[in-house]
TrEMBL record:
<dbReference type="Pfam" id="PF00800">
    <property type="entry name" value="PDT"/>
</dbReference>
<keyword id="KW-0028">Amino-acid biosynthesis</keyword>
<feature type="domain" description="Prephenate dehydratase">
    <location>
        <begin position="4"/>
        <end position="182"/>
    </location>
</feature>
<dbReference type="Pfam" id="PF01842">
    <property type="entry name" value="ACT"/>
</dbReference>
<dbReference type="InterPro" id="IPR045865">
    <property type="entry name" value="ACT-like_dom_sf"/>
</dbReference>
<dbReference type="InterPro" id="IPR008242">
    <property type="entry name" value="Chor_mutase/pphenate_deHydtase"/>
</dbReference>
<keyword id="KW-0057">Aromatic amino acid biosynthesis</keyword>
<dbReference type="InterPro" id="IPR001086">
    <property type="entry name" value="Preph_deHydtase"/>
</dbReference>
<keyword id="KW-0584">Phenylalanine biosynthesis</keyword>
<protein>
    <recommendedName>
        <fullName>Prephenate dehydratase</fullName>
        <ecNumber>4.2.1.51</ecNumber>
    </recommendedName>
</protein>
<feature type="domain" description="ACT">
    <location>
        <begin position="197"/>
        <end position="274"/>
    </location>
</feature>
<dbReference type="GO" id="GO:0004664">
    <property type="term" value="F:prephenate dehydratase activity"/>
</dbReference>
<keyword id="KW-0456">Lyase</keyword>
<comment type="pathway">
    <text>Amino-acid biosynthesis; L-phenylalanine biosynthesis; phenylpyruvate from prephenate: step 1/1.</text>
</comment>
<dbReference type="InterPro" id="IPR018528">
    <property type="entry name" value="Preph_deHydtase_CS"/>
</dbReference>
<dbReference type="InterPro" id="IPR002912">
    <property type="entry name" value="ACT_dom"/>
</dbReference>
Length: 310
């Protein structure tokens, strides 16, 4: 049996389309799961080699179920990311007219991307959340709802037709997906990488978040995502999901992570992996004084001072 990748299913999700853009997906068995949790659990228990799930979109930010799964439980690691431009189609059973639609469904992350369209075209419709956009299409096929927002490509799979296509409140809306596996050595740096971590503050004090972010800022590391998530320990108790530009084997990133490890209650490393928004082969510039050579040179200088050889 080939190694398998679990993904947020059923067949016909945007997640499946994004997964199929990865060359390695062609050599794996792709198995749909009903939720992000069950796909990630399949990896945790060794049923799947990796899981492919949505993690962020450009309209609402982080997809909290995915972030919360990565923050807690048995540690997992991100190995790849994929960006997909998203527009929705309104899928209905053949013959349904716009005026027939009383109920509509989709994944909760779809709602902020179609809210204005709904207000204009179906102001009185009742929204129900589905486990995924393709699951919403399946529920329309079963007659549970009148319409679903999903990819146009899902229509044929569920015997539906697209009453409207190209629905998107925000121009260029993109969703980011990640391939998640059990912890292992990260892929080698490409020159345009991203590192994801979760940070827990040691205590609550003025400027606490600034202290954490300062570890990145003083080493010239740009941040690409900062999302607080409740720890569950009470109001005001948060951990921080951070995506930072660079790879853990870059000296500046390694030093920033060492700094965070010293000052945080806990740091969870979620992986270093190639950025999907940069062309392969393109190397990101570093800020003055933050290249590997400059870190090595500075460490040598300190060693020579300690030896009285400067
Ligand atoms: O992959 C899907 O179809 C999903 O249900 C997740 C999702 C939700 C909204 C936009 C893109 C992907």
């Amino acid at each position: 049996m080939p190694a398998s990748y679990a993904y947020l299913g059923p067949e016909g999700t945007f997640t499946e389309v994004a997964l199929r853009t990865l060359p390695e997906a062609a050599t794996r068995e792709l198995i749909p799961y009903v939720s992000v949790q069950s796909a990630l659990d399949a990896v945790r228990v060794g049923e799947a080699e990796a899981a492919f799930v949505p993690i962020e979109n450009s309209v609402e930010g982080g997809i909290t179920t995915t972030l919360d799964e990565l923050v807690a439980g048995t540690p997992l690691m991100i190995y790849r990311e994929v960006l997909l431009s998203i527009t929705f189609a309104l899928l209905v059973r053949p013959g349904t007219k716009l005026s027939d639609i009383k109920t509509v469904t989709a994944h909760p992350a779809a709602q902020p991307q179609v809210r204005n369209w709904l207000k204009t075209h179906l102001p009185d419709v009742v929204w129900e959340s589905a486990a995924s956009n393709a699951d919403g299409a399946r529920l329309v096929q079963e007659g549970r709802y009148d319409a679903a927002f999903a990819g146009e490509f899902a229509a044929a799979r569920y015997g539906l037709e697209a009453l409207e296509t190209g629905i998107h409140d925000a121009e260029n809306a993109q969703t980011r997906f990640v391939l998640v596996g059990r912890p292992a050595r990260p892929a080698a740096p490409t020159g345009a990488d991203k590192t994801s971590v979760v940070l827990w503050q040691r205590d609550d004090h003025p400027g606490g978040l600034r202290d954490l972010l300062g570890e990145f800022a003083t080493r010239g590391i740009n941040l690409m995502l900062l999302q607080s998530r409740p720890t569950g320990a009470g109001i005001g108790n948060y951990c921080f999901c951070v995506d930072a530009e660079g790879h853990i084997s870059d000296r500046r990133m390694a030093e920033a992570l060492m700094g965070l490890k010293r000052i945080c209650l806990q740091v969870r490393f979620l992986g270093s992996y190639p950025r999907a928004d940069v062309r392969p082969g393109e190397v990101r510039p570093t800020f003055p004084g933050t290249s590997d050579e400059e870190f090595v040179g500075a460490a040598d200088w300190v060693a020579r001072c300690q030896d009285g050889r400067f």
